[in-house]
Amino acid sequence: MHLSHGFRGDSRGVVPRALTVAAVVLLAAGGPAAAATAGPPADRTDPRTATAELTLPAIDVKDLRVVPYKGTTDDGPGTRIQDRGEAAGPYGEDGGVGPGKVGNYLVTAHRIVAGGPLRDLPDLDKGDKVLVEEGSTVYEYRITETRRTSFRSERSLAEQRAEVPGEPGKRPTRAMITLSTCATPEDDAAGNTWRDAHDNPEHRIDKIGVLVSSKRS
């Protein structure tokens, strides 16, 4: 698998320079949703209490519970959520936005332990569907990119958690999602047995997607 360090996006989702008024543009099915804005950065600090459900048809993940919490990817509270076999959706200063919001919606879950709900995440391909249901709304994202994050690199972590994945400091113009799980088998095979305080390996495999539609369920 080719794992790139930069998000290149999808040329179909490029926003013309003339669009400076805040708007959300839903393209035809299969094309990414884009938003052009001259307003403030995405609000990652808005507390979220509603759980969501994640479905990844291409790898047979159905209705995986995503629990929101104040924190950042794979920290202590997030790891405890994942240890229950659920996915964690951090929000706050170092977290992500909510489902369907302009910015980066972060979702992490285990690949090997606790039932390994994201065991097959590396198999997600460009164009595969990501469905997130929150309340009475279903948000559909499409995978556009694969990235690799190093937990031993502050720069790499900043790229994972950026409002635009891979581009810290860049203002978001559309709703995006980062699905992340461990690269433990790959690290172990390479002889890299480093672990952090929460038993995370050095590397994470991240799948990036963009919003293409939303509808009432």
Please outline the helices and strands.
Blueprint: E1 23-25, E2 34-36, E3 52-56, E4 61-70, H1 76-83, E5 87-91, E6 103-108, E7 129-134, E8 137-150, H2 154-161, E9 175-182, H3 184-189, E10 203-216
Parallel strand pairs: 4-5, 6-9
Antiparallel strand pairs: 1-2, 3-4, 3-7, 7-8, 8-10, 9-10
Task: Please characterize this protein's 3D structure.
The protein has helices at 76-83, 154-161, 184-189; strands at 23-25, 34-36, 52-56, 61-70, 87-91, 103-108, 129-134, 137-150, 175-182, 203-216. With 217 residues, it is mainly beta. Strand 4, helix 1 (76-83) and strand 5 form a beta-alpha-beta unit. It has 3 helices and 10 strands; from the N terminus they run ββββαββββαβαβ. The model is unreliable at 1-38 (pLDDT under 50). It has one domain: Beta Barrel (Sortase, Chain: A), CATH 2.40.260. 10% of the residues lie in helices and 34% in strands.
Could you give a short description of this structure?
This protein has 217 residues and is mainly beta.
The average pLDDT is 86
Radius of gyration: 16 Å
Helix content: 10-25%
Within CATH, the superfamily carries the name Sortase
Q: Count every beta strand, where a strand is a DSSP E run of 2 or more residues.
A: 10
Which parts are unreliable, with pLDDT below 50 for 5 consecutive residues or more?
1-38
CATH architecture: Beta Barrel
Q: What's the CATH class, please? A: Mainly Beta
Number of continuous helical runs: 3
Question: Can you write the helix and strand succession as a string?
Answer: EEEEHEEEEHEHE
Strand content: 25-35%
Shape: globular
The biggest sheet, with number of strands, parallel, antiparallel or mixed sense and barrel status, is:
8 strands, mixed
User: How far is it from the N-terminal to the C-terminal residue, by CA?
Assistant: 35 Å
